[in-house]
Amino acid sequence: MRSPVLLFTARLAIRLAALACLLAVGLAGCGPWRAAQVPMPSLHEPAPTAGRADVLLVLMPGAMEVPRDLVDQGFVAELRRKGMAVDVEIADAHLGYFRNGSFPERLREDVIEPARRRGGYRQVWLAGISLGGFASLVYARRHPGEIDGIIALSPFLAGEPIWREVRDAGGLARWRVPSPIEPGDWERDLLGWLKGYGDPGERRPALYLGFGVDDRLAPSNALLGELLARDRVFTAPGGHDWPAWKRLWSEMLDAAPLPRLGVTSGGD
Known about the structure:
This protein is an alpha/beta fold. The chain has a single domain (about 5-255), classed as Rossmann fold (3-Layer(aba) Sandwich), CATH 3.40.50. Helix content is about 40%, strand content about 15%. The protein has helices at about 5-25, 65-70, 75-80, 95-100, 105-120, 130-140, 160-170, 185-195, 220-225, 240-255, and strands at about 40-45, 55-60, 85-90, 125-130, 150-155, 205-210, 235. It has a seven-stranded mixed beta sheet with strand order 1-3-2-4-5-6-7, with helices on both faces. Strand 4, helix 6 (about 130-140) and strand 5 form a beta-alpha-beta unit. The longest helix has 24 residues, at about 5-25. The protein is globular, with a radius of gyration of 18 Å.
């Protein structure tokens, strides 16, 4: 007879592999798996300032993109055009890290903590599109006290059966979180944590959400948006594509309280 520990490990691995496949299908279609490297690679884009930046912004691409795509599509250039005094790490947090269940550990150990040691940052923000938005939320769920803010563009939140379950319950505010949540059920676990954004007594990282009105993920994103303040939810014409994401990115940067060159950011 297999031990309970082995059974738990096997079931968790199966659930994580299934989630990775769901993400691949739901976000961009199946493609060849990329191996999860150790350490997780990242691109470093320092702030254009002679002084030390107080804020680290960790960016993560979508399921079919690589870190360089965010540079080529102007995401870093838009930060600089707006005078954002932040250091940027673009992490290659691809589906392989979800498939083997190592994503939160690898992002923390290989990207965030080394950057913290180098930069001594006062704040850490996460941002991402599609899979990267999901990854930002998942990491904040695992390490809520370490993250100060999140900019999530068209994040995957859950497969259609689960978000329909939430919708049919009357939204996240009325949806009852299963108890207990089965090990490896990342989707319901994440939704249960996101539900806390509707409770003023629950402390959460600042969350800015954006999505295209014709995005296939818009119905689930809208359910989350119902819990957030109106000035933290952004929509744009278009679907799950770069034109919508770039417009949203520009508008969300204007709203997010990130420090700018020549302006001292608030906080302790």
